[in-house]
Write a structure and sequence with these properties.
This protein has 309 residues and is an alpha/beta fold. It contains 6 helices and 19 strands. It binds NADP nicotinamide-adenine-dinucleotide phosphate.
């Protein structure tokens, strides 16, 4: 049996839960399908200090529990462990196949986020949240006055390394080649920053530490020699992967795979919107995901009302 809704949201992170809240308050019957549990990327962040309204900071989990509770208070249905396998369109309606059934809706918001690429080296998972980070903007302040390593040589790695250099004592940039992929302007800034040191031709092989990160073992790709760099934090910036596989045929993406929308969060497919980290945009933060969620919901509400005449 196909469950029937007016709106369906894929992903219960900040963007999806905000969109759900707005749609329920607008009287639109909405379901949110969440692959795991509500909360999205902020669940990986111990303390959030840059989301307004919480002067003492708040844990990612508590903040997202509040998002979910607020949306549920307006009757939002959040289906946990419900993974989208595919999206199709029949007679103007969206049919979404899930691992636990099928749902139909007049409109769809894709808020499925993106995943930092994991290197898969020993210690990366074991020390997650205890010195391993994928977000300098979120976690940089926790390493004030300490030494950290940033892995990667792209724009994200160098931009975030520069921002960390304003806070920490020293940033080791660990890059597998002898030249950076990052833009010239970022490279110039980085090379002129006295708090940054480059470990060229260096392949990270293990993060070490008992309770917290204590060091990073790197291997010289030319000599094969291994060396332990003493650091309290390791930031991974080896690329991101937006979660769009299930919706590919209905949207246009930029060369890195992010969904292209207009300023109403609309994709090229009528009735299909994208919000949050999955969308092509200049800044991926909880605050911008919330903004996207609100914009996408209001756009979808208008689309549904116009469809119904
Ligand atoms: P990226 O450009 O794909 O760079 C990833 C970096 O990680 C590269 O230096 C790569 O090394 C390294 N890497 C990949 N796999 C690795 C592995 N297995 N082991 C060690 N190192 C590995 O990713 P990004 O920096 O996140 O940027 C993504 C896109 O967003 C890019 O198009 C970028 O231009 C854009 N972006 C733009 C801005 C900006 O304009 N301000 C800011 C951030 C991102 P190699 O270089 O050897 O391949």
């Amino acid at each position: 049996m196909i469950e029937d809704y007016e709106a369906l949201i894929i992903g219960a992170g900040p963007a999806g839960l905000t969109a759900g809240l707005y749609l329920m308050r607008a009287g639109i019957r909405t379901l949110v399908c969440e692959k795991v549990l509500p909360g999205g990327a902020p669940l990986n962040t111990g303390r959030i200090e840059n989301y307004p309204g919480f002067p003492e900071g708040i844990s990612g989990r508590e903040l997202m529990d509040r998002f979910a509770a607020q949306a549920r208070a307006f009757g939002l249905a959040i289906r946990e462990f419900s993974e989208v396998k595919g999206v199709s369109r029949t007679e103007g309606r969206f049919i979404v196949s899930l691992n636990d059934g099928e749902a139909a809706a007049d409109g769809l918001i894709v808020a499925s986020g993106s995943e930092p690429v994991k290197l898969g080296i020993p210690g990366e998972i074991e020390l997650a949240g205890r010195g391993i980070s994928y977000c300098a903007t979120c976690d940089g302040m926790f390493f004030k006055g300490l030494d950290v390593a940033v892995i990667g040589g792209g724009d994200s790695a160098i931009e975030e390394a520069l921002s960390l250099a304003n806070i920490v004592k020293k940033v080791y940039v660990v890059h597998r080649r002898d030249s950076l992929r990052a833009q010239k302007i970022l490279k110039e800034r980085a090379f002129n920053n006295p708090r940054m040191e480059f470990l060229w031709n260096s392949r990270p092989v293990e993060v070490v530490g008992t309770r917290e990160v204590e060091g990073l073992i790197v291997e010289d790709t030319v000599t094969g020699k291994r060396n332990t760099v003493a650091v309290s934090g390791v930031f991974f910036y080896v690329g991101y992967e937006p979660n769009t596989a299930f919706v590919g045929e209905y949207v246009d993406c930029d060369p890195t795979g992010y969904i292209i929308t207009d300023d109403r969060c609309a994709t090229r497919e009528p009735g299909l919107y994208a919000a949050g980290d999955v969308r092509k945009k200049p800044l991926r933060q909880i605050s911008t995901a919330v903004g996207d969620g609100a914009v996408a919901a209001v756009s979808l509400e208008r689309y549904i009302l116009e469809r119904k005449g």
